[in-house]
Design brief:
The chain has two domains: about 150 residues, Creatinase/prolidase N-terminal domain (Creatine Amidinohydrolase, Chain A, domain 1); about 230 residues, Creatine Amidinohydrolase. It is about 35% helix and about 20% strand. The protein is an alpha+beta fold and about 425 residues long. The longest helix has 21 residues. It contains twelve helices and 15 strands.
Length: about 425
C-alpha cells in the first residue's frame, strides 16, 4: 500500500474550529501548488502570457484540477497570468462554496459564470470579465492568450478577451492541460482507488438482489444509494447510473432510466461510476435475470476474454494500437468484430472519459501511471447491447486493478 492511499487531513472552518479528522485519500495543497507551477512552465515554453480555463457541469475537470473548485448550478473559471498569481472565478451563488473549496487564495465573483437565468445576488464585490481583463492588461504585457475548455468555452468571455486584448493571439491551450492531467500522481491514484472500492462494494450489495419485476429506476436507486453511502461525493461526473434493459433500451448507447420493468432472460446493462474528491472510477456489468440464453452467454464470455487479452498486454510503454488489437482480435475470432463500434481502452480521471483518445489507428504510447478503462462494448446484437468495463492503473509490469467486481462475478455468473 502506498503511503498516499490513506491520507489523514485536517481543515479549519471560518470560525477557526477544526473539522473532524478524515482518514480518506485527498489531494494535498502542495500538489495544487505544483500543478500551477507546472502549468506556468508550460505557458512559458509556449510563450503564453495569460491562461483562461472554463468548466461547467458537463466538463468540470480543468478548473477543479487547478483549484479543487467546481460550480453548483453555475460554471467556474480560472485565470492564470504567467507573471502573476492565479484567480478562481466564481458565480454569485457559489461564492461561499468556492471560497470554502478553493486551494487558491484569490477568489473573485464574476456574473458571467453565474446562473444562466442571470439571477441578481446581493453578495460581495463583483466584477465582470471585461473589468478584470483590463486590470490584468494594466499589470502585465499580454500578447498571447491560451483558452482551456474547447467544446464549452463561452462566447461572452471569449468576446471580452478579444475586445480588451485587441491584437493578441488567442490559441487553444487545452491539450497542454490534458497532457499534464494524463499521468496521475499517487495521490490521484489513491482517490481513484477509493472510487473503485466504493463501486465494487455497491455492486456486491445490489447485484445479487436484482430480480425480474424491478424497474430500471429501482436498480438505479439501489446502486446510487450504495455509492453515496460508501463515501462518494456523487456518481460519475456528468452522468447518473444507466440501467438500460431489453433489446430496445440496451441499444441506446447513452440513456436515462425509465419505469420499464426488467424481464427474465433479457440483457440488463449495469453501468455506473463513482466520483471521489473529483476523480472517477467506472464499472459496467451485464446481468440477465433467470435463465441466461446461450447467445447472451457466448457474447459475454467473448467480451470478457477480450478484456482479459487487453489486460495481459497492457503495461507502461505499450501502444494503444497493440492494446486494442489484443482485444479486437478476440472479438473477431468470435464473429463480433462488426459489433465493436469504438476503441476498447480510454483515459479516465476528472472526467469518466477524457482526452487523449487512445485510437487503434495510431501507435500512441500509454505511459506508466495512466489510469484507463478497458471497455468491451458489444453493440446491436440480436438480443441488444452490453459492455464490460473496468478501471485500472498502468504500471511498468502490468496493471493495478481499481475495480475488481467483474473478475469473479462474470466467470461464475455466465458459465
Amino acid at each position: 500500500m502506498f503511503l498516499q492511499d490513506v491520507i489523514s487531513w485536517k481543515k479549519y472552518n471560518k470560525e477557526g474550529t477544526m473539522e473532524p479528522k478524515i482518514d480518506f485519500p485527498r489531494i494535498p495543497d502542495s500538489e495544487f501548488e505544483d500543478r500551477i507551477t507546472n502549468v506556468k512552465n508550460k505557458m512559458a515554453q509556449q510563450k503564453i502570457d495569460l491562461l483562461v480555463a472554463y468548466s461547467n457541469a458537463f466538463d468540470p475537470g480543468h478548473v477543479r484540477y487547478l483549484s479543487d473548485v467546481f460550480g453548483i448550478n453555475e460554471a467556474a473559471a480560472m485565470v492564470i497570468p504567467l507573471e502573476g498569481e492565479p484567480t478562481v472565478c466564481s458565480g454569485q451563488a457559489c461564492q461561499s462554496w468556492s471560497e470554502y473549496k478553493s486551494r487558491i487564495k484569490d477568489v473573485k465573483i464574476l456574473p458571467e459564470v453565474g446562473e444562466v437565468a442571470g439571477v441578481e445576488y446581493m453578495v460581495g464585490d463583483m466584477v465582470n470579465f471585461q473589468s478584470f481583463f483590463k486590470e490584468l492588461k494594466e499589470k502585465y504585457s499580454i500578447s498571447k492568450i491560451g483558452t482551456v475548455g474547447a467544446l464549452i468555452f463561452p462566447q461572452i468571455i471569449y468576446a471580452q478577451l478579444q475586445q480588451v486584448f485587441e491584437g493578441a493571439e488567442i490559441v487553444n491551450a487545452e491539450p497542454m492541460i490534458f497532457e499534464q492531467r494524463f499521468i496521475k500522481s499517487e495521490n490521484e491514484i489513491a482517490c481513484m482507488r477509493k472510487a473503485g472500492e466504493i463501486l465494487d462494494a455497491s455492486f456486491e450489495k445490489v447485484v445479487k438482489k436484482i430480480e425480474a419485476g424491478w424497474t430500471e429506476l429501482d436498480i438505479q436507486a439501489e446502486i446510487t444509494a450504495e455509492i453515496l453511502k460508501g463515501g462518494a461525493e456523487s456518481t460519475a461526473a456528468s452522468w447518473e447510473p444507466m440501467i438500460p434493459s431489453g433489446m430496445e433500451h440496451s441499444n441506446l448507447c447513452m440513456n436515462r432510466n425509465s419505469l420499464r420493468r426488467v424481464k427474465e432472460s433479457e440483457i440488463i446493462c449495469l453501468q455506473a461510476g463513482a466520483l471521489y474528491e473529483g476523480y472517477n472510477a467506472a464499472l459496467n456489468t451485464p446481468l440477465v435475470p433467470g435463465k441466461i440464453p446461450e447467445e447472451i452467454k457466448r457474447a459475454v464470455n467473448y467480451a470478457f476474454e477480450a478484456r482479459e487479452a487487453i489486460i495481459s498486454t497492457l503495461k507502461g510503454g505499450v501502444t494503444s494500437r497493440e492494446a486494442n488489437i489484443a482485444g479486437k482480435s478476440v472479438l473477431a475470432r468470435g464473429g463480433y468484430q462488426d459489433h465493436s463500434p469504438y476503441e476498447m481502452i480510454h483515459n479516465i480521471g476528472l472526467l469518466e472519459c477524457e482526452s487523449p483518445w487512445m485510437t487503434d489507428e495510431e501507435d500512441f504510447v500509454i505511459p506508466e501511471r495512466a489510469v484507463v478503462c478497458i471497455d468491451a462494448f458489444l453493440y446491436r446484437l440480436p438480443f441488444g447491447s452490453f459492455r464490460i468495463e473496468d478501471t485500472m492503473v498502468v504500471r511498468a509490469d502490468g496493471v493495478d486493478r481499481l475495480t475488481k467486481f467483474n473478475n469473479g462475478f462474470i466467470p461464475e455468473y455466465f458459465t
